[in-house]
Amino acid sequence: MAERKVLSKYYPPDFDPSAIERSSKRSRKDGNGPKLSASRLMTPFSMKCTHCGEYIPKGRKFNARKETLEERYLSVQIFRFYIRCTRCSGEITFRTDPKNNDYQCERGAKRNYEVWRNNTDEKYNDETEEQTLDRLEKQHGEKEEQMERDKMAELEDKMLDSKREMKVADALDEIRTRNARIERKEAGGAEAALATVQDEIDEETRRAEEEEAADREALRKEFQAKKRAAQDDARVAAIEAILNQPPLRTCLSAASDLLLVIPSVSASRSHASSKGPSHVFNTEEIFFYGKRSLGMARIGN
Fold first, then answer.
1. What is the Cα–Cα distance from 148 to 142, expressed in whole angstroms?
2. Is residue 88 part of an annotated ligand binding site?
């Protein structure tokens, strides 16, 4: 009770203020206190003790000691943690790894294999700060390029969505117009509305029949064209077969002889006309000479 409202305290002559221990918080601010401090944490990864083989899963709670290290990574403070195995009380230490945004197991335990971990990050452990900065800048540039491409793809998707919305809006307008027309007809009575619906059904049926008739007409024309082409091919083949027969070849040769005889006869007639009246071959004479030539050719065969 005497200490409640005391106005002054007694300090002996040999009092030394520097001998008084300061609190841990103030000493840590000044940088003169101990670098180890108690900390309650959970294991950031699963590990296996190298002393007894105890499996320590991720997320198990420990009363650890936290040590502040002198080294830094890009002005980021690095900490080391000390824990003990729950089975053999062996000391296990691990530290923060701000370079890889992870933790690094130092001694006393071995980190278990994790499938989801990216093993390609291990090749960056020997990089210098300049190499790391260059790599990060390059990755950032690639990410920006990917974002630009994604923006173009997003713009294309928006255009497709807008077209789809326009089609939907047109369909809705058509439905609304149809409903409004039906409602106007319903104002005149149910029979008028049914008549309107029936007219629309008949119109759709008529349109379908017209399309079907057009398709049939196109098929018919195509079939006729193919049939006509086949008939023409058959006629050509028949004519070629007739022309290739031996008697007809003889007739053709006789006809060619006729064409050779007529000019000679015409020449003799013209020679005789110099002494007497002129004579001109008519069609009957030419036909007579042709029949005689063809008959002689048949007799010869």
1. 10
2. yes
